[in-house]
Amino acid sequence: MMKDVIAIVLAGGKGTRLEPLTRDRAKPAVPFGGVYRIIDFTLSNCINSDLRKILILPQYKSFSLNRHIDQAWKFLTPNLGEFVEVLPPEQRIGEAWYAGTADAIYQNIFRIEREQSRDTIILAGDHIYKMNYAAMIAEHRRRDADLTIACLPVPRPEARHFGVMYVDDHQRVYDFREKPAEPDPMPGHPDLALASMGIYVFKTRVMFELLLEDAQRSGSRHDFGKDIIPPMLATHRVFAYPFRDENRKAAAYWRDVGTLDAFYQANMDLIQLDPFLNLYDPSWPIHTYQPSLPPPKFVHAEGNRVGAAYNSIVCNGSIVSGGQVHRSLLSPGVRINSFATVEDSILFEGVEVGRHARVRNAIIDKHVRIPPGLEIGTDPALDRSRGLTVSEGGITVVPKDEDLGRFASPIG
Fold first, then answer.
1. What distance in Å separates the CA atoms of residue 377 and residue 362, rounded to the nearest whole number?
2. Exposure on the CB side of residue 192, measured as CA atoms within 13 A
3. 365 Rama sector, left if φ>0, alpha if ψ -120 to 50, beta otherwise
4. 356-406 confidence digits (pLDDT tens)
């Protein structure tokens, strides 16, 4: 165990671009891949990297996140100095909520200081990827860096949403711009820019000094990318660390699932013939809470009622009873009734699809009952007229516990 490193997971974003999935939960707590939550990927990376001192800093709608951490991540042993601990905002230093990423760390500086760690790794709780943080920390120490920033090349138009880095031949960072309107290309790669992944390894002592200075600076937005990193470049040793993927695929896999369409596509990645994200590698398991549910069941009944799922993920507790499922993801406890069809969709826990109903190009949040005969996702304009959210890519999203009964029509 890397006992002299503490991991801090920032989990405070509102996730407004993921509404209505974030209407009642924090973005890192949004279900993903059937049985996981988004934050499980960052936390599993920590455990698989032998990092077992983990602090999580939430801010908005944290009940669901707290419950998931209690259910899934309390297997560490405090007596051995291991913990996954949620630190809600306490306003110990001031009366304001977290004003930025740096301020979130600063407001918890007393708790972090108690661990007396040599290095601190700062992570986001809302990205999907596999990474060995221990290798990054080792490189950070080998270079005697004050700060090491994980990075990866992205298409230049996408780089406008990230911090963009410029490095020399030794990977030392000489310029850093947060979300530039026109990112400069990487040398020799005119279509790519080098983007920060929001993963930082600091010497803890240096981080404390910088946070204290920033807290006293008038006009600061208290954000690492805007206010901490750029001034460091002239006074400290700051290096880039190219992303090394543990996904064991030809192309590196890292996804920011901050929009409904990005979230939908990342889930759809899992059901490909050769999935882009490998969840079946025992050398890099993704940990989560698994409820005690029976195996999935498929029912072939009389009257041409064939229960079947094709190119899909079907989780425990689900029953496909005389319905058809194509290229979809059924979370635990989903029921598909006779003559119903589900295509290219994501169904969260406890969803029931009534007889003769049809779901297509949709995300259905928890415990929604789709009445018999109702169609969701086949006509985006109709779904909008019903008050449902339709993404830019045409994906219909039904909120948690939504009552669709008012749209039902009798089956002839």
1. 6
2. 12
3. beta
4. 999 999 999 999 999 999 999 999 999 999 999 999 999 999 999 999 988
Residue tagged 């032998």 (tokens): 50
Long-range contacts of 331-335 (CB under 8 A, 24+ apart): 331/31, 331/34, 331/35, 332/34, 332/35, 332/291, 332/293, 333/293
C-alpha Rg value of the chain to the nearest Å: 23
264 carries a ligand binding annotation: no
Closest CA to 30 of 215, 294, 264, 220: 264
365: Cβ–Cβ under 8 A, 6 or more apart, which residues? 20, 21, 348, 351, 397, 398, 399, 400, 401, 402
Answering whether pTM is above 0.85, one says: yes
User: For 250-301, what is each residue's pLDDT tens digit?
Assistant: 888 999 998 999 999 999 999 998 898 999 999 999 999 998 999 999 998 7
Q: Which pair of structure tokens corresponds to residue 312?
A: 């899909």
How far is residue 363's CA from residue 359's CA, in Å, rounded to a whole number?
9
Find out whether 129 and 266 touch, Cβ atoms under 8 Å: no
Single-letter code of the amino acid located at 392? E
E strands along 156-307, which residues?
163-167, 173-178, 192-203, 238-242, 254-256, 297-301, 305-306
Q: Is 95 annotated as ligand-binding?
A: no
Which pLDDT does position 54 carry in this prediction?
Answer: 97
98 marked among binding-site residues: yes
Tokens read off for 150: 């994980």
* Cα distance between residue 104 and residue 117, in whole Å: 18
Q: List C-alpha distances in Å: 364 to 100, 235, 272, 359.
A: 32, 50, 20, 9
139 marked among binding-site residues: no
31 close to 331: Cβ distance less than 8 angstroms: yes
Q: Check if the beta carbon of residue 391 is closer than 8 Å to that of residue 409.
A: no
Non-local (6+) Cβ contacts of 291 within 8 A are: 316, 317, 332
The response to whether 133 counts as a known ligand-binding position is no
Contacts of 36 (CB under 8 A, 6+ apart): 286, 288
* Domains of the chain, start order: 5-269 (3.90.550.10), 297-407 (2.160.10.10)
